Amino acid sequence: MEHDRQAMTEEACLREMIEQFIHERHQGKLKELRDSDTETIAALAEKYQVTTWLDDAARRVQQLTIVTHAVKFLNPGAQGSNIFEHNADSRCRHFASSADLKPQFTPDAVGNAAQLDVYKFLQLSHNKESLLSRMARNDAVLRKALPGNDEQKNKWTAAFSGIMQSQVSPATHTLAKQVYFPLSDDSYHLLAPLYPTALVNEVYLRIQTRYSEQNKAAFKARKEKKPSTNSHFDFPDLAVQKFGGTKPQNISQLNSERHGQAFLLASLPPLWKTAAVRAPFGVKSIFHRIAAFKTTIPLKALKAFLTKMQDKTNTAEIRRQRENYVTEIIDLILLYASEVQQLPPGWSADDRCRLLPHQAYWLDPNRTGDPWVQQRRTSEWVDKVSLEFANWLNDSLQTEKMRFGDDERFEWKKLFENELQWLNPEVC
Fold first, then answer.
1. pLDDT digit string (tens) for 100-115?
2. How do residues 202-258 score in pLDDT, each as one tens digit?
């Protein structure tokens, strides 16, 4: 009994929804008339009887087709095929496609723009299911909600479900895009790409949620530097495509609902914004503070690796991995050094510079003037800087259970020295 009551309630809701849609269409036409247009008013009253309107809509629906991919977006005059395709394909899972749309996605409708009111009718939804979906599965509750006899209901159901079937054989058109795709046997495939209108519409709707009250409130809180429980999102550098000019309905129904607009996400490489490089004033060595900061991640990784391997035989593979970690640390330090070396020459002569001479020779190589140039040329600064690196790395890796001595110091020094000499051939 409870199930029957629920079915009756759903039946009544569907009937009311159908009648309300037709009534609103009728009222819209009446607003365009004067009270003296009695004949036209009487004709409209007959036309918008529920049974009469459904008969007419079932006839007009043949001029429409629902699609996921449409050809008129490529050229309004193109007359080629449109397709409806929503099957997931495991071969394309690394691409965004129409197969990624949720099951209750909104397909598009193409055809005679004057008949698009029929598509709007079929998209009416109750309990998250459209009339079209109910028609397609011959829903018993919907049949009860419809007026007329079984013969009429069968005719309506068949006609409205037919919108899901293409009325023509697949074909392209001279105004549609075509791509000649070469094959290995000197032949080719002729590809006819279509516009993924259903997917584009889903993207459009999601982007438009940036105007939701929740998102606007979060944005306002961020702008005013106030706390908010909601995150804020935006889509910078959007481009807008326009389809259909002043008559977007001539392209498709969803295009009309979007006022002819579709969004293009920015496809640009990120702009790398690096903080201004400052001279290392106030320190005697860049290793104990600056290098430690620049190499935090690989330094921790090396320490963890050595801790894990300390009780294992020192194989060639372990030595290779250890060298890779150390080389990564050296590369980051030398990257920082190269940035400092791009500063205007002579910064090391500033009274604020506390660097040891050999580090100043390394980091300010283009400084001019005697006796600086002569001292740099005769100083063994590469050896001294490399030894400082080795001592710093030993100290950084040292733990109560893991000790490092001369053997490791020599290995670190050799790796660093080789890199410095390769970058500074004049000191070889």
1. 777 777 889 988 888 9
2. 999 999 998 888 988 988 998 888 888 888 888 888 999 999 988 999 999 999 999
pTM of the model: 0.58
What's the gap between Cα 374 and its chain centre? 57
Q: Tell me how far apart the alpha carbons of residues 218 and 226 are, in angstroms, rounded to a whole number.
A: 9
